[in-house]
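Subject: Sanity check before I submit

Could someone independently write out the structure tokens for this chain? I want to compare against mine line by line before I put it in a report. The sequence has 75 residues.
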Amino acid sequence: MRRFIAGAKCPQCEQVDTLFMDNTATGKRRECVRCGFHDALENLAPPAIPTRVERERAPAASSEPVRLVDPRKPV
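---
Independent answer below. Compare away.
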């Protein structure tokens, strides 16, 4: 099934809104209807951002029971 990629710019002819995605037997690929450019999408994953820092998980806090107090009654 072919689906057009809205707002995408062809890397070869640089026209906007001419690319579509196609599911083939070998995988997904994109193709330009204007110039015929095509490539596989498996290797087009965006690279990881090198400045991104994974947050370390904080150690689990110890749990303590909570005592509810009625403000109308003396303790």
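---
OP: Matches mine. For the report I'm noting this point. The chain has a mean pLDDT of 81.
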